[in-house]
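REQUEST FORM: STRUCTURE PREDICTION
Request ID: SP-0412
Submitted by: Lab K.M.
Chain count: 1
Length (residues): 193
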Amino acid sequence: MSLTEILSNFHISETTEEIYKNTIKASEIETPIGKLIAVADDNFLYILIKLKSPDKVINTFNILQKELSSSIVIGSTKIITQLENELTEYFSGKLKSFTIPMRCLGTDFRQQSWNQLKKIAYGETMSYGELAVKLGRNVNHARAVGSAAGANPIIILVPCHRLTAQNGHLGGFSCGIDVKTWLLQHESKFKNK
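STATUS: Completed
RESULT:
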């Protein structure tokens, strides 16, 4: 399903349109891991997700629209253009740290989890339990950390792919284990270059 098809299924009633005074732009970005959907205004990136599950995309759009009182339309912004450039550099192995201003919407625990995820270095991994401990929680909160990672609205830049199970297994990933494996191998290849 394309972004156009998703947005055509993402209905806004006439009364709703009157409430939303701001507009946020959504754009498709082709990458080596497949098509990504980026949603941003001229100040922040709000969403970067893989076009895998249209229902998840629509749900994420609904949350964003409600929280920001904004409509979402197809288009680009200076943030999306900057993101495209930085993703090109990342996938070529030249960029290890993104400079895109981001705003992730979620519960306090999810926000804390996502902020900790951003501290995991390029090419490194951390277990879900280790992240729970860094958050001041018991290692047994690993499932809650996994749930927060699964709800991450900005993949790659908030690197939930760097989380693994305690036993060294990959664990889950909202984009699929094949994409998680690809990203980890890609970062490992360019880590010391």
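NOTES: The first strand starts at residue 22 and ends at 31.
Reviewed by: T.R.
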